[in-house]
Design goal:
The protein has a single domain (3-376), classed as Farnesyl Diphosphate Synthase (Orthogonal Bundle). Helix content is 73%, strand content 1%. Strands 1-2 form a two-stranded antiparallel ribbon. The radius of gyration is 21 Å and the shape is globular. It is mainly alpha-helical. The protein contains 17 helices and 2 strands.
């Protein structure tokens, strides 16, 4: 679909390509989701160009800082949150409403996501993201190349925190560009604010878990998944979209989206837990085995310890594996049955999500898309 068609109307479904190797639902889904991603990226690029120019006027040095922030936003990614928000909106309004009034709000979610990613990478001391150096690592390298004084690592982390903060402000500013009635925008803002609070809560629990693994459990690991990932990846974006459409908080569709979003969001994080250990770095863009190296108390690792024999548990306790040990420990986790258990948990949650959709009175195309997304988001390699 051409961009002018996207700009004027809600997205239409494009036909599946005959040569697509995926199943028909996912093939069709990929065709029209790409149009949405293009529309979101165009919105972000236009907005950020003006913001970078404005910051550069403050001081010439601000140009490189603002450009680094812009690049962090536009450096790829699946645009999952705007996608779920779009289908949450489309499920309520149907296929005849114009997209431009709500497009800034959808794109704002990607700025919020960048804020979370940049800060998360600093907290986790991650070296790569999407196959590239993380923001704080790239900024540290720029510090060295420029011959600046001081600790490059400290500089990189400090500036990355500021980039995350700036993206949060940019998200607020872009959200305000949505042209919906003021009372409705206030409800959208309430949903957005709750999403941000829950994201911070989940992030804190994630940090706490890494420092208090002895007192962690499968239940608490799932709670991290619920608030760090499910809330701001699927559930709240869906509800955000429903708010943009004017759906009441006590409507049946809202309840169905809540149930669907929690199930798919948890399954998404469980999939991430598996990819963090068994994923191909060339596809995920991140080193395999980081969670094993640090002993991060993910649901996968908590289940492995719970299911392990005494000998296996001794091998897993307090694990902080070097590179040579990662492969052995990954096999050990699988031998406990934890991988198979997590895969069942993912399948159960996808089933719960689809059952929630069956109970909802939503637009037929949105139902098809959300059905495909429930599978695509939890059956992936990156």
């Amino acid at each position: 679909m051409a961009n002018d068609a996207v700009a004027g109307n809600a997205l239409r479904v494009a036909p599946a390509r005959p040569g697509d190797r995926d199943d028909p639902v996912r093939a069709v889904l990929a065709a029209y989701t790409q149009d949405l991603i293009t529309a979101v990226d165009d919105t972000l690029a236009t907005f950020l160009a003006a913001e970078v120019d404005s910051l550069t006027e403050i001081d010439a040095a601000m140009g490189s800082f603002a450009t680094a922030a812009r690049d962090a936003v536009l450096a790829g990614g699946k645009r999952i949150r705007p996608t779920f928000a779009y289908w949450g909106w489309r499920g309520v309004v149907g296929g005849n409403q114009p997209l431009p009034p709500v497009l800034p709000a959808l794109a704002a979610l990607e700025l919020l996501h960048t804020f979370a990613l940049v800060h998360d990478d600093v907290m986790d001391a991650s070296a790569t993201r999407r196959g590239r150096p993380t923001a704080h690592v790239a900024l540290a390298a720029q510090h060295v190349a420029a011959g600046h004084r001081g600790d490059p690592g400290r500089f990189g982390e400090a500036v990355a925190v500021l980039i995350g903060d700036l993206c949060m402000v940019w998200a607020d500013r872009l959200l305000a560009h949505a042209t919906v009635p003021p009372a409705r925008l206030l409800e959208v803002r309430r949903c957005y604010d709750q999403m941000r609070v829950e994201t911070v809560a989940g992030q804190y629990l994630d940090v706490l878990g890494e420092n208090d693994a002895a007192n962690w459990s499968v239940d608490r690991a799932l709670r991290v998944a619920r608030y760090k990932t499910a809330s701001y990846t699927v559930q709240r974006p869906l509800l955000f979209g429903a708010c943009l459409a004017g759906m009441a908080a006590d409507a049946p569709v809202t309840a169905a989206y809540t149930r669907y979003g929690l199930a798919v969001g948890e399954a998404f994080q469980l999939c991430d837990d598996l990819l963090g250990v068994y994923g191909d770095p060339a596809t995920t863009g991140k080193p395999a085995g980081d969670d094993l190296r640090t002993g991060k108390p993910t649901t996968l690792l908590m289940l492995a310890r719970q299911l392990a024999t005494p000998a296996q548990r001794r091998a897993l306790e307090g694990v902080e594996a070097g590179e040579a040990e990662v492969g052995r420990l990954a096999q050990l986790v699988a031998d406990t049955g934890a991988v198979a258990w997590v895969e069942r948990m993912i399948a159960e949650r996808v089933g719960e999500a689809l059952a929630a959709l069956d109970s909802a009175d939503v637009d037929r195309t949105a139902r098809t898309a959300l059905t495909g997304l429930a599978t695509a988001a939890t059956n992936r390699r990156a």
